[in-house]
Specification:
The chain has a single domain, classed as TIM Barrel, CATH 3.20.20.70. It contains eleven helices and eight strands. Helix 1 packs parallel to helix 11 and helix 7 runs parallel beside helix 9.
Length: 254
């Protein structure tokens, strides 16, 4: 099955509003140019989402959120619910390694966030990945499989078909050193086999992205991996020219 490549720029806690609007407009132009060959999305900081969604309305650019609350509403200072995001976003990142490590989010919390997003019609980009210690101990595959098992425990095959999995080894995030193509394909293959064991042929259509120090220097090799269908890009997505080069590398990769 042919899977449409997808590149997502995760802006994290960067940009002013003016910078974000200009970057979004430029990225939207890129998205329009490469459709229907490649899907392009961005995850701005929460305060800029509404302004950006309004700015790029009518373009091909997909808007995502970097996180969401596991709760629907209530006295949760600083949290943002799925219902608040749904009018402006098409998808949301869940379980990003920085949420799991810096904010100590457990597998249980990630599972609840997946459920909250689905209940409000948001697409889910589920992030999974192992630490350096887990890989050194030979527990990389079991760690990722456990994260999938927990987060997708009550997800039907119909719902799974709408999701995206992002493999982002914790030790590669922001380090400047990406995993090797062999490591990425091995783990992506593990993810695909796990999905197949739960959802059968539906797994063939689920996109698997790689995230972790993606750059112009390694992106073409990444797309050579059979089970890699795109990238979740951090710092490189903040420069329109660099991000364009990454998107263009995806053209014709499938």
């Amino acid at each position: 099955m042919t899977r449409q490549p997808l590149l997502i720029g995760n802006w994290k806690m960067h940009t002013s509003l003016d910078d974000a609007l200009a970057l979004a407009q430029g990225t939207a132009a890129i998205a329009d140019e490469v459709r229907p060959s490649v899907d392009v999305g961005v995850c701005p900081p929460f305060p800029w989402i509404v302004s950006i969604a309004q700015k790029v309305r009518g373009t091909s650019l997909l808007i995502g959120a970097q996180d969401l609350s596991a709760d629907s509403d209530g006295s949760f200072t600083g949290d943002v619910s799925a219902s608040m995001l749904a009018p402006w976003c098409q998808f949301v990142l869940v379980g990003h390694s920085e949420r799991r490590t810096v904010h100590q989010e457990s597998d249980e919390v990630v599972t609840r966030k997946v459920r909250a997003a689905r209940e409000h019609g948001l697409g889910v980009v589920l992030c999974v990945g192992e630490t350096a210690a887990a890989r050194a101990a030979g527990r990389a595959e079991s760690t990722v499989s456990g994260q999938l098992e927990s987060a997708l425990i009550d997800v039907s095959s119909d719902d799974a078909a709408t999701m995206t999995i992002a493999y982002e080894p914790v030790w590669a995030i922001g380090s400047g050193t990406a995993a090797t193509v062999e490591e990425i394909q091995a783990m992506s293959g593990t993810i695909r086999r796990w999905l197949t064991s739960r959802h059968g042929l539906v797994a063939d259509g689920i996109r698997i992205l790689y995230g972790g120090s993606v750059s112009q220097h390694n992106v073409r090799e990444l797309f050579d991996a059979a089970d890699v269908d795109g990238a979740l890009v951090g710092g490189a997505s903040l420069d329109r020219g660099t991000f364009r080069a990454l998107v263009e590398a995806a053209i014709g990769s499938r």
